[in-house]
Design brief:
Layout lengths: L12 E2 L2 E2 H12 L7 H25 L4 E6 L3 E6 L4 H16 L4 H19 L3 H27 L6 H27 L1 H9 L8 H9 L3 H29 L1
Antiparallel strand pairs: 1-2, 3-4
Helix pairs in contact: 1-5, 1-6, 2-5, 3-4, 5-6, 5-8, 5-9, 6-7, 6-9
Length: 247
């Protein structure tokens, strides 16, 4: 396992810290660099928005809805999507079923097929489809942020110090920007008012539409997503430590 590569007692240390922890903490310290100047803020916005819209687009295609991300030079981003194409959704479902059928472990194969029979129709062919679409942008940011923190711990592709620290910087940035948004939406009237007024291309922002779709309050959604963002780093570190113990 990649996470086990740093498990030896004689693993390299940097400034007295085991190398994985150094890169993780260095990334945490450097992540705020994306807020230092207007140019860096724009770069950070572009990076986060690209990931965000890729999450929306990926979720849409998975339930049979053609979608294309769009990012504007005026710091506006959205994912344009059409109506669901039933043959496309059925094709995705069939492909996922074929992949599950090829799993060699019998119990695991049965579990995956069972989940596909229940979960995919519930997500693709009911009103939950819109909920999945709305939450997928922020969810993908958190997922990719967690993946990047894991790569910083495990060594990435090359184990080069610069690569590992960069993974950590981007991972912490993606998680941190989500947490800053949701904490503001939960705790601040001013943040909620600004969020309600700054939708890209005149489109209402995701959490407002999600609140309308689910019947939850904006504050409740923000609290739930804040908890999800806070949980990402401990989950990644826990998996890494588990991998070390298994090495």
């Amino acid at each position: 396992m990649a996470y086990a590569l740093e498990s030896r007692d004689d693993a390299p240390r940097v400034l007295g810290l085991p190398e994985p922890w150094f890169h993780l903490l260095a990334g945490l310290a450097l992540a705020p660099v994306f807020g230092l100047t207007p140019l860096l803020r724009l770069i950070g916005w572009f990076l986060g928005s690209l990931v965000h819209e890729m999450g929306h687009a990926g979720a849409a295609w998975l339930v049979g809805v053609p979608a294309v991300p769009a990012l504007g030079m005026t710091a506006e981003a959205a994912t344009m999507h059409g109506e669901q194409m039933l043959p496309l959704a059925l094709g995705v479902w069939a492909a996922a079923g074929w992949a599950a059928w090829r799993v060699e472990h019998v119990a695991l194969r049965g579990a995956w097929i069972g989940l596909l029979c229940v979960v995919y129709p519930a997500l693709a062919f009911t009103s939950l489809r819109e909920v999945v679409h709305l939450v997928s942008g922020h969810a993908f940011e958190l997922m990719l942020g967690g993946l990047f923190l894991g790569r910083a711990l495990s060594g990435g592709f090359s184990h080069a110090p610069g690569e590992r620290t960069l993974y950590a910087v981007v991972g912490w940035y993606l998680i941190g920007r989500n947490l800053a948004l949701t904490v503001g939406l939960f705790a601040s009237d001013a943040a909620r008012a600004e969020y309600a007024s700054n939708g890209s291309f005149g489109i209402e922002n995701d959490y407002l539409r999600l609140a309308s779709e689910t019947g939850w309050s904006l504050e409740s959604l923000a609290l739930l997503m804040s908890a999800a963002a806070v949980a990402v780093a401990p989950a990644v570190v826990g998996l890494w430590c588990w991998g070390q113990r298994r090495a």
